[in-house]
Amino acid sequence: MVDSRPDAPLDHWISKLINARETDHSRRSSVRVPRLRPGASVADVDALETRAGFALPADYRELLLLSDGIDDFYFSMHLLSTQDWPDGPKIREALGVREAYEDLLDELAIANAPEDLFPIAGGAGTNAIFLANPTGRVAPGPIIWLEHSDVRCFRDMPDLFDCQADEVAYDRAGKALDFPIH
Questions:
Q1: Where are the domains of the chain?
Q2: pLDDT per residue over 68-88, tens digit each?
Q3: Where are the beta strands (DSSP E) in the chain?
Q4: 10-25+33-168 in CATH: which number?
Q5: Top-confidence residue, 176 or 108
Q6: Which one of 82, 148, 154, 182 has the largest count of C-beta atoms within 10 Å of its C-beta?
């Protein structure tokens, strides 16, 4: 069921996702339960913001302070930690996904340049999640998920977690952002 508490604190949304995955895991052992990490320091988050070249959204900063990355956020995809930079394997995988989708990104006019998409999640496979630089963003939301040949946009971190906790209910409730096709 889609949560009707859009203003709930971020830890509410994290708990909702973990609870949903624990329920799925009890039914199918192949489903991975997301694992939190110790929170990042303010200095580490500030350094990541400098690397990004734009102000990180407040809810993403809050996430990193609560949990510096989340293992198995989505199957083998991990929300990246401040410690994954500058050239950890998960960063390279996310940048590889961004490069593989460059033509689609250009066709959809998601950002002015690929560099305007800053990786926040990556792992083995063809999935990655990015923050769009607000000065170069064309997409309807600041969080961009590339999955196979699909592109999804999210309003904020709670929106992303809400969708991941129950994607069917999220879609049925019409919460997905419409993506303008050019």
A1: 10-25+33-168
A2: 999 999 888 899 999 998 888
A3: 35-36, 70-74, 77-79, 117-123, 127-132, 143-147, 150-154
A4: 3.40.1580.10
A5: 176
A6: 154
